[in-house]
Design goal:
Blueprint: H1 2-25, E1 31-43, E2 48-53, E3 60-61, E4 66-70, H2 73-92, H3 96-123, H4 128-179, E5 181-183, E6 188-193, E7 200-201, E8 206-222, H5 224-227, E9 235-243, E10 246-263, E11 277-286, E12 296-300
Antiparallel strand pairs: 1-8, 1-12, 2-4, 2-7, 3-6, 4-5, 6-8, 8-11, 9-10, 9-12, 10-11
Helix pairs in contact: 2-4, 3-4
Length: 301
């Protein structure tokens, strides 16, 4: 009887130990992945010598901050030349009222003569030929005035178009001048620097790479079985893995779920390791400065 008691006691201890071991081995996460950030490569938008460049790898920058300057001398000189050209066009524009003033005055005088001869002919004090000559003179002067106005208007329009074309060229050069100023597109951390101050850069040459390390995300992979239990906008727990069982918890939000399956990456572990196809997801987090690009992490749904 006593032996039976000890046998049951021993069996109970083994059962308790087995369940405890199973509980300890139960995973505290549903998927693993690596942390990533949105990276942006800044390219040169103009060609020239790099007169200033204050970018250093690892430093934080603010959005719309000027960090460099490409030589602007030739562009600035072209703008000044076009300003002078526009002044020349403006000075050549005819003063229409002054140039037609004499003809207009002659036409007024001719119409007065025509009216006077009309009254004289009506009273029989002058021959009708004099009225015909006066009317003919009015028509000639009117045609001269119309021709002058048409010619001066055409000349003015041509000069206005030339001035407008020069203004467009000035705007283009101002845009080129603006692009000589190297501006950070977003707030973030400089990851890589490709050029140094004093170098000649051409359009399209990469200058530096910046990443938004404040708003990061973890790319993880889930099986189809897990996929039915998650949705975009869902709040989850994210753990940054520092190694040696050191982790830090963050509040995460599922921001993207792939619409296509892919084969399980060799570096990714999932709950169902037998699954050949998985779906990629992105979990956005607010970084406090401790999470680094490429760091491993886990997510708990």
């Amino acid at each position: 009887m006593r032996h039976t008691y000890f046998a049951f006691l021993y069996l109970g201890i083994l059962t308790l130990f087995f369940f405890s071991s199973c509980k300890e081995k139960e995973k505290e996460y549903d998927a693993t992945g690596t942390f990533e950030a949105t990276e942006t490569t800044v390219f040169a938008e103009q060609s020239g010598a790099l007169l200033a460049f204050s970018v250093n790898e690892g430093e934080n920058t603010e959005a719309n901050m000027e960090v460099g300057l490409i030589d602007t001398t030739q562009t600035w000189l072209k703008i000044q030349q076009l300003h002078a050209t526009k002044e020349v066009y403006r000075s050549q524009k005819p003063d229409m009222e002054r140039q037609i003033a004499a003809t207009r005055q002659q036409l007024v005088k001719a119409r007065q003569d025509e009216q006077r001869y009309r009254e004289l002919v009506a009273d029989g004090a002058a021959p009708s030929k004099m009225l015909d000559d006066a009317s003919s003179q009015v028509k000639v002067l009117q045609r001269q005035l119309d021709a002058q106005i048409s010619s001066l208007s055409t000349s003015s329009r041509a000069l206005d178009k030339q001035t407008a074309a020069a203004e467009v060229q000035v705007s283009q050069l101002r845009d080129q001048l603006r692009k000589c100023h190297i501006i950070t597109p977003t707030k973030g951390t400089v990851l890589e620097k490709y050029v140094e101050r004093g170098e000649f850069v051409s359009i399209g040459k990469p200058l530096f790479k910046i990443a938004d390390t404040e708003n990061m995300y973890m790319r993880a992979y889930v099986t189809s079985a897990q996929l039915q239990n998650i949705r975009i906008g869902q709040q989850v727990k994210v753990f940054a893995d520092y190694g040696n069982n050191q982790r830090k918890e963050y509040q995460g939000t599922i921001s993207w779920i792939s619409s296509r399956s892919e084969f399980t990456p060799k570096t990714i572990l999932t709950d169902d390791e037998r699954a050949d196809l998985v779906y990629a997801i992105k979990v956005a987090i607010k970084n406090d400065g401790f999470v680094k690009i490429g760091m491993y992490g886990q997510v708990k749904f």
